[in-house]
Amino acid sequence: MARVELSKKACSVNPLKMSQPVGGALAFLGLNKCMPLLHGSQGCTSFGLVLFVRHFREAIPMQTTAMSEVSTVLGGFENVEQAIVTIATRTKPEVIGICSTGVTEIKGDDVDGFLKLVRQNHPELDHVKLVYVSTPDFEGAFEDGWRKAVTRMVGQLVDTPPQGAAREANRVNILPGSHLTPGDLDELRDICEAFGLEATFLPDLSGSLDGHMPEEFSPTTIGGASVNDIARMGRAAFTIAIGEQMRDAAVALEAKTSVPFRVFDRLTGLAPNDALMALLMKISGRPAPSKIKRQRSQLLDAMLDGHFSFGGKTVAVGAEPDLLFSIASFLTEMGATVGAAVTSTQSPILHKVPAEEVLVGDLEDFEHRAKGMDLLVTHSHGRQASERLHIPLFRYGLPTFDRLGAAHRVSVGYRGTRSLIFDIGNVFMSEIHEATPDTWADKLASHGEGSHDDTQTAAH
Fold it and tell me: Which domain of life does this protein belong to (predicted)?
């Protein structure tokens, strides 16, 4: 069990974490025809917008209530009302997802009360769903904002089925954590369909941020979980939550609809995927398809091939809690040691991380603890530490803005785990400096081997 420590520094020098409003906004981007709205200054929204555009390389719909100094002091009702009316009139969304920010949380705006007044003043907007979530950026982190937003979606968008209503035996709900990519969700959908199951994802970034070319422009999100699909989640046979961060949403869904659930701490690695396949076999009543068995066999072969590269290596990992646990567990199972683990916020999963200590800190803490390691694993903001320490960096997580295809990386399921073995194993292999005729003699001399004196000594 890892010991969890908090950084004692007075300020964050090189931040690892991203704020709650950014996490909440990304969750709303997984809904179809949705417009995320940040209740705060324009700068708050601009930061998240640039972050997502650089990572996903897609047009990102986001709006702001554009709070000024005066409106912040006097209260933001007029800004919220005007923003909702303007968005509903011009972009015609089905959902407006509203996230608070630090400036409006400090003021203490009663946004729930604001929304009731907006409903009273504008009955013509009754068809637009308004989902508000409190996400102050002076506490918590990205993962917390996502968790709160999804839990709120469950509370406001999922219908409670009538008493005695029949369940759809072939339908499952999947609540993915913020650490899963659109590529991961596509892989999970393929796995469910292989068992004859239809999956509803909440949120579903694979529909809205998977990098497709839409047939026509839309000012709101294109693809993702629709309002109708979300409303039907209460009729599903089972709910699968991925990541400890999704436990609250799964509990809320069960309390509202009585749909049973199971939380998977991770779906990277052999054992957790074996458990997932066993669950899907039980839900569907079908044996594992031959292609799934083949993928498992391929993963076993990849683990055998790759463990020579992983064995004996020490790795420093900096990531959000669920992503940290997933990649650290995977590295340990492959024979590596997690020598340094740094995260952004508190979570019950941190005690399970296979490391002596997990520090809730920043990238400066990460860099200090990473000295002498064989590999750094964090997002693109770790590249400066990699250059200074002369240690290779495996970019993992959000944001990854200096490499292509971050949204399509797959690291869940048997195939995703196999791909991760190859990706990281190749980084280790690229650092092996093979001797050449020009360097072999120098290497022997540096170790004092093969000299005439040593040969004579050995002969005597």
Answer: Bacteria
Same domain, 265 and 318: no
Instruction: Give the Cα separation of 260 and 258 in Å (integer).
Output: 6
Write down the mean pLDDT value for the chain: 92
CA 33/CA 47 separation, integer angstroms = 22
- The residue type found at 449 is E
Q: Are 354 and 6 in contact (CB under 8 A)?
A: no
Alpha helix segments (H runs only) across 175-216: 182-194, 205-208
Q: Are residues 135 and 212 in the same domain?
A: no
**One domain for residues 308 and 410:** yes
pLDDT digits (tens, 9 = 90+) for 101-140: 998 998 899 999 999 999 999 999 999 999 999 999 899 9
DSSP letter for 390, please: T
- CA 185 distance to own-chain centroid: 11
Same domain, 225 and 309: no
By DSSP bridging, strand 375-378 and strand 314-318 are parallel
* 3-class DSSP state of 364: helix
457 band by pLDDT with thresholds 50, 70 and 90: very low
Q: Is the pTM of this model over 0.85?
A: yes
Contact 340, 317 (CB under 8 A): yes
Which pLDDT tens digit goes with each residue over 139-195? 999 999 999 999 999 999 999 999 888 899 999 999 999 999 999 999 999 999 999
Place of tokens 């992983």: 310
Report the run of H or E that residue 96 belongs to, with start and end: strand 95-100
Report the CATH number at residue 90. Answer: 3.40.50.1980
**Which residue is it, tokens 């759809």?**
168
Instruction: Please say if the pLDDT value at position 456 is more than 70.
Output: no
β pairing state of 337-343 and 357-360: parallel
Distance CA 182, CA 95 (A): 21
Q: Residue 444: inside a domain, yes or no?
A: no
The domain tally of the chain equals 3
Residue 244 is assigned to a structural domain of this protein? yes
Q: How far is CA 436 from the centre of its chain?
A: 43
269 Ramachandran zone, left/alpha/beta (phi>0; psi -120 to 50)? left
Q: Based on the domain organization, do 407 and 304 belong to the same domain?
A: yes
332 with 306, same domain?
Answer: yes
Boundaries of domain holding 415: 296-430
